[in-house]
Protein: Cytochrome P450 81F3-like
Organism: Olea europaea subsp. europaea
Amino acid sequence: MLLVNLWAIQNDPKIWDDSRKFKPERFEGLEATRDGFKLMPFGSGRRGCPGEGLAVRMVGLGLGSVIQCFDWERVGKELVDMAEGTGLTMPKAQPLIAKCTPRPVGAKLFSV
Ligand code: HEM
């Protein structure tokens, strides 16, 4: 069994400027094979994720919908704890708990 350390590749300061800084725009327009395998959220090669095409299209749509259709708030005054937990899929150390309130635009979109 081969486990590739993607975390190390995607946080490598030799490849990325400010590699530990949250800068999602750094990934815009990147593709794994074309861009030297710097970014591989879906793995690569014959056992790479067959759902990549669907996921790339649907994640933005789903995320955009929950942002557009709900107002989001923290439950308390503290900022969201972004600490990393342990595990192969890098879970959050503390689960995210947030409060959402439907916005009128959502009611219009989802009512029949
Ligand atoms: C953001 C969404 C997703 C991410 C980040 C993701 C990521 C991954 C990764 C990293 C792998 C392992 C690839 C490897 O071993 O090199 C994988 C495998 C797989 N994914 Fe996804 N995936 C996503 C969505 C989906 C969707 C939507 C489907 C199906 C509709 C899917 C179906 C599969 C299957 C069947 C495998 C196993 C492939 C194999 O072992 O041959 N994934 N995915």
